[in-house]
Amino acid sequence: MKVKAMVHSLGELAEVEIIEHKDNNHVIAEYHGHKYTAVFNIFTGLYYVDDKYGLIE
Which of 22, 30, 34, 54 shows the smallest number of beta carbons within 10 Å? Predict the structure, then answer.
C-alpha cells in the first residue's frame, strides 16, 4: 500500500510503498526502488523510513 511517510534523509513526508508490516517495529518499505526498514508510530499515525542506515540488500 502507498502511504505518506517520514523519510530520514529528507526530514519530511514522502510517498513510499509498504511492502510488509509484521508489527509496528518490523516494517519493510520501498522508496526510490530500494527496500528499507521502517517503524509505525501509533501516536503520530505515521511510518518512519530509515533510508540512511536501514537499507535491505
Answer: 22
Domain count, the chain: 1
Contacts of 42 (CB under 8 A, 6+ apart): 24
Q: What digits encode the pLDDT tens for the residues 9-19?
A: 999 999 999 99
Q: Cα–Cα–Cα angle for 50, 41, 8, nearest 5°? A: 20
User: Nine-digit cell at 53?
Assistant: 542506515
56 close to 36: Cβ distance less than 8 angstroms? yes
Domain enclosing residue 36, as ranges: 2-56
DSSP, residue by residue, 1-45: -EEEEEETTTTEEEEEEEEEEEETTEEEEEETTEEEEEEEETTTT
Does the pTM of the predicted model rise above 0.90? Answer: yes
